[in-house]
Hints:
By secondary structure, the protein is an alpha+beta fold. It has 3 domains: 26-106, wza like domain (wza like fold); 111-198, Outer membrane lipoprotein wza fold like, CATH 3.10.560; 202-272, Outer membrane lipoprotein wza domain like (Outer membrane lipoprotein wza fold like, Roll), CATH 3.10.560.10. 20% of the residues lie in helices and 29% in strands. It has helices at 3-26, 79-90, 132-138, 177-181, 224-230; strands at residues 41-46, 54-57, 63-66, 70-73, 100-106, 111-116, 122-125, 149-154, 171-176, 195-198, 202-208, 214-218, 244-249, 252-257, 269-272. The strands form 4 sheets. The chain has a 5-stranded mixed β-sheet. It has a 5-stranded mixed β-sheet with strand order 12-11-15-13-14, with helices on one face. The protein has a 3-stranded antiparallel β-sheet with strand order 2-1-5, covered by helices on one side. It is rod-shaped and about 100 Å long. The chain starts with a helix and ends in a 5-residue tail after the last strand. The relative contact order is 0.10. Residues 1-29 have low confidence and may be disordered.
Amino acid sequence: MTVRASRVLRLIAIVLLGGVALAAQSQPPADSNYVIGSGDRLRIAIWNQANVSGDYAVDGDGSFTFPLIGRVVANGLTVSGLEGELRRRLADGYYRNPQVTVAIAEYRSQRIYVMGAVRTPGTHPLTGTMSLIEALSRGGSTTADAADQVLIIRTPNAQGPVLPGEDAAASVVRVDLRQLNGGQPTDVRLQDGDTVFVPRAGTIYVYGEVRRPGNYPIPEGTTIRQALSLAGGKTEFGADNRIHVLRVVAGQEQEIKVKLNDRVEAGDTVVVPERFF
């Protein structure tokens, strides 16, 4: 083989491999355990049978029409289950050992609800591999006053978002946002009808000799020292030894002496008085 012929063959191989890579990238990600429902759009490929390969929409009755074999019920089948069903029916007098691949081109039958302290609350399609972080990103991410946890509220046959306390039969899974942001894995798998709810953090009011008095959202476990930092720190006139908290206990406001490492509670007013001299 000449050097020129060898170069030509290498060029052909590169082009072919590039085409395969582009084709793989064009395929939507598939989750073999995703349960298909009405409205989903399927991308079905039969090896070496381009004339029947293509996109097929699942109708309202949960089925779709496929060439040669007619109506196929997809509703309730997983992606891998539908592959097996098509393989079985196509092998019955049409193709010899058909190689069938099914992917979800558009997820439409399953949905989740992202609510609470997110920028764009609403309804979003549930993809087969959607993570909790991805669900929160669909909601535009959390707002500045979001708490450090996410509630996943799950109730049978949910027809819309379910807020905390609305359904006594609902199960609630709590996930620490700090673990998610730190890249820690979570075994929570979202399901059709789940409500992802981000509560708002409790707030405190910092008053007196601080640089920026006002209301501030606080994560759980915030200390007096951290509360003062949120307010820009105390001024040069602030009294370290007389900082106190106004807290409502059993309906009555109480004044509580605190140290810098004590924790505040939602609703507290942290008061930094002026020093005497």
